Amino acid sequence: MAEKIKLYDDSKCTACRGCQLACKQWNGLKAKQTKNLGTYQNPPTLQANTYMIIRFQDVEDDKGNVKWLFRKDACMHCTDAACVQACPTSALRYNKEFRIVGKDLDRCIGCKNCVAACPFEVPKYDHETDKVYKCDMCESRIVNNMIPACVKACPTGALQWGDKDVMMKAAAKRVKELGGDANIYGDKVVGGTHLMYVLKEKPSVYAGLNQNPHVPYSVLLWKNLLKPLSLLAAGGVIGGSFLHYIIHGPKTPDEDGQGSQAEGGK
Ligand code: SF4
Ligand code: SF4
Ligand code: SF4
């Protein structure tokens, strides 16, 4: 099976949020009461019960004209995934066939190492279940020859799913058509992401988009030195505790403050 990616083209996105709703429905994620914060972006960030959001942003051009920018925010499915490297139980793991980052919730012990390690602030912790949630690229669909639910729901072609080489060619063609500052985001960071963007503006224009995502040094230290050592001592408990300390620092009463996860989340 060829490596696949999901391509998001913000120039084709109308921010209808059909993808956001489809994600909720496929994953059985319950809605929660939210507040109107003066923006259509709702909820304001990813949450344990919201694996993707469409971000809304208004920007002003040189002539003072205001225009919308939209961006799909979800797990980037990094080739060099900090979350996988930080996870002590393999609850987060690579799917070797599709090269995406899947999850096995039964293995999650709620240590939140992945939350601290992810350079895109994707995994979200839920107090009620003591587990962490994120997009798994609809793994249960793609292994059964179905496309991700968000891609299926998109009415404009802003989202596509396909073989990496085909998607990369389509992305390059689209960037050429758009001209100006249009660019591809994702191919040159963290070993290449499997959610890739065609952006009509430079990445620096998009609020909250990490310009230089990388695996934190604390995680590299854990993976390359402390984890092998810890496997020799006390089944990894000492090393795991130390990793937790160097990533999170001393424990505080409420480290996260996120809303709780819905029933049926996967
Ligand atoms: S975006 Fe974060 S959660 Fe997703 S694969 Fe990369 S490191 Fe892991
Ligand atoms: S791939 Fe599936 S889980 Fe991920 S954002 Fe799309 S619908 Fe949600
Ligand atoms: S369904 Fe397509 S057009 Fe609608 S918000 Fe999602 S990506 Fe944009």
Protein architecture, described:
- By secondary structure, the protein is an alpha+beta fold.
- It has one domain: Alpha-Beta Plaits (2-Layer Sandwich).
- It is 27% helix and 18% strand.
- It is built from eight helices and ten strands.
- A four-stranded mixed sheet has the order 8-1-10-9.
- Strand 2 and strand 3 (66-73) form a beta hairpin.
- Helix 7 runs antiparallel to helix 8.
- The longest helix has 16 residues, at 217-232.
- The protein starts with a strand and ends in an 18-residue tail after the last helix.
- One iron/sulfur cluster (SF4) binds next to helix 2.
- What share of residues are in beta strands? 15-25%
General shape: globular
Bound molecules: iron/sulfur cluster
CATH class: Alpha Beta
Roughly how much helix do the residues carry, as a percent range?
A: 25-40%
**N/C terminus separation:** 24 Å
User: Judging by the overall fold, what is the CATH architecture?
Assistant: 2-Layer Sandwich
How many DSSP H or I helices? 8
Question: In the CATH scheme, what's the topology name?
Answer: Alpha-Beta Plaits
Low-confidence stretches: 254-260, 262-266
Overall number of strands: 10
Q: How do the SSEs run, as a string of H and E?
A: EHEEHEEHEEHHEHEEHH
Helix and strand composition category: alpha+beta
The biggest beta sheet is recorded as: 4 strands, mixed
How many separate structural domains? Answer: 1
